[in-house]
Amino acid sequence: MLPLIILVFVLLIASGLSVLKVIRDKQKYNALFNTPAPDQWLRVLKNSFPTIQKLTDEQRKRLFGFMQVFLKKTTFEGCGGLELTEAMRITVAAQACLLLIGRNAPVYPKLKTVILYPHTYQSGKKGVFGGDNGHNSRLGESWDCGVVVLAWNSVLGGARNMEDGQNVTFHEFTHQLDQEDGEADGAPILEERSAYSAWARVFNREYKQLVDKTNRGQRSTMDEYGATNPAEFFAVATETFFEKPRQMKQKHPELYAELQRYYHMDPTLWK
Predict the structure, then answer these.
(1) In the β-sheet with 140-143, what is the strand arrangement from edge to edge?
(2) What is the domain extent for residue 249?
(3) Total count of domains within the chain
């Protein structure tokens, strides 16, 4: 009997310590979130990510709060001869965190590392979404082990041009959101269980329509890469939502509404 009592006692202590750690972590991140952003951030982003100027004061404040947490918890690594700068870290963080500012959600809980290459790189890794083991030229990848890989020239180009419907940072961090439930399937964690049926209905229909248009060689508001599979469709749809919101809202109103509910934002209202 004594060993059992000791075991229960040890488990209770461990459970209590775990709860205390969660509380301390939350307090730490709340403090980070509310820490004023360095003046340098706005100066950098006005040049590298002009969208910062379209946000409301409250949205910009939340963006900087999420960035504080993101930059504290995420390791950056430069590869392919790239020398990392603070401006690079700020530019990546701003785009990644823009996806979060309307939501009360953790800051990419599985993310550990962002790897930056100077430009398009060769990858021999078989990705989460399939592909062969041969070397492929890539602009970005999202791994389910908490790693995002990006080509810096594409990151900067996408940040400065927010009207072409293509943004590799949005794309790969949408995959991170998708992977939070353990599966890359185009269905992220939604706030309410009842929301999944509408999400599945709208996304499945829109995905099939894009596949059909792509097979017929017809153009769409969304990039044809979204026809690859449902996970890529979610990522491409997110790029379009933030970069071509008016076109998407007009031509794909139900899809736009689902994304608006998920991100708690309406980019058509930006300045």
Answers:
(1) 75-78, 113-117, 147-151, 140-143
(2) 37-269
(3) 1
